[in-house]
Design brief:
121 residues; alpha/beta; Nucleotidyltransferase, domain 5; five-stranded mixed beta sheet; 36% helix; 30% strand
Length: 121
């Protein structure tokens, strides 16, 4: 299963999410993932609906356990992981997931996207 993971600020727009998605150059993505406290945000829900992809909410404790390539100090302090997008992608992609695309950032710096592939449990 190939999953696009997202991290984004509460004020991120649909355009922010689209820009991060395009920068990640997703291919054959089966689902998108975000932290469970943001998975229902209006812009993200609209984005998911436009893509016709299911949303996988990721629990904070699962994000903490993910080993990310990117290690943002600010994000680690706030979210307990080096990259929300990478952690969400890895967790949602399932067992033995690997990153195909590390975190990319939208031009407005409001959203990030990473792509992982793995097997679902």
């Amino acid at each position: 299963m190939r999953v696009a993971g997202f991290g984004f600020r509460q004020s991120a727009t649909l355009e922010s999410l689209q820009a991060a998605w395009q920068a990640a150059q997703p291919v054959d993505v089966s689902a998108i993932a975000a932290p469970e406290d943001k998975a229902q945000a209006q812009a993200f829900a609209t984005f998911a609906e436009a893509l016709s992809l299911p949303v996988i909410p990721v629990a904070p404790q699962d994000m903490h356990a993910a080993s990310t390539v990117t290690n943002s100090t600010k994000v680690r302090e706030k979210r307990g992981t080096g990259s929300v997008a990478e952690a969400c992608a890895l967790v949602a992609a399932g067992a033995s997931a690997t990153l195909l695309q590390t975190r990319v950032i939208s031009e407005d710096r409001m959203a990030t996207c990473a792509i992982a592939e793995g097997s679902t449990t």
